[in-house]
Amino acid sequence: EDGTVKEEKVHFSEKLSSRPESGFLGFLLAPDFKESAKAYAYYTYDRNDQPYNRIVILNRQEEGWNEKEVLLDDIPSGQFHHGGRLEFGMDGKLYAATGDALQEDQAQNKESLSGKILRMNLNGTVPDDNPSKESYVYSYGHRNPQGLAWDEEGNMYSSEHGPSGHDEINQIFADANYGWPSIKGNEE
């Protein structure tokens, strides 16, 4: 409020990965932050020398931020393409962009969480009106989506890093396939 910057420690239950493009990738204050002191985070960590991403709830306390609860774990990760963007939709749901983790074909596999835009309730459960009632997957066929936004009419958009400059901005629809790895840039 007064223009000063204050550094605060964030304490995760797992050590942040030091792989390229990994680490503390997404942060979003809860809609009721003033009352709850909660935030949502997306980060990469290593388990048994394999990288994974997870979505957690953080609590702000006197000594900084502390991981309180894991909402979704074992999101595939790799050397690059971790994703990590978190945003609240106009529908009150939490959306998360995940990269393909350099496993390109997994972006087309609806059973995998990589190369997707995920949608969840704020408590980490799958919304009843998701394309599949058992899955967080909202859209698929993404390479490495990094931005999520909505216009005044409620249309959702995503910016996505493409290979060799074939970046994309896509309007996102439920259960839509955005083509990666077969389609890139302005191909159809």
Can you give a write-up of this model?
- It contains 1 helix and 12 strands; from the N terminus they run ββαββββββββββ.
- With 188 residues, it is an all-beta fold.
- Strands 1-5-4-3-2 form a 5-stranded mixed β-sheet. The protein has a 4-stranded antiparallel β-sheet with strand order 6-7-8-9, with no helix packed on it.
- The chain is globular.
- The N and C termini lie far apart (47 Å).
- The model has no long low-confidence stretch (mean pLDDT 94).
What's the SSE pattern? EEHEEEEEEEEEE
What's the gyration radius in Å?
A: 16 Å
> How much strand?
35-45%
> Helical amount among residues, as a percent range?
under 10%
> What structural class results from the helix and strand content?
mainly beta
Oligomer: single chain
For the report, how would you describe the main beta sheet? 5 strands, mixed
Distance between the termini: 47 Å
Number of strands: 12
Please state the average pLDDT score. Answer: 94
User: What is the helix tally?
Assistant: 1
Main traits of this protein?
five-stranded mixed β-sheet; 2% helix; mainly beta; 12 strands; 188 residues
How do the strands and helices of this protein lay out in sequence?
Layout: E1 10-11, E2 24-29, H1 33-36, E3 38-47, E4 50-61, E5 64-76, E6 86-88, E7 94-97, E8 116-120, E9 137-140, E10 145-150, E11 156-160, E12 168-172
Parallel strand pairs: 1-5
Antiparallel strand pairs: 2-3, 3-4, 4-5, 6-7, 7-8, 8-9, 10-11, 11-12
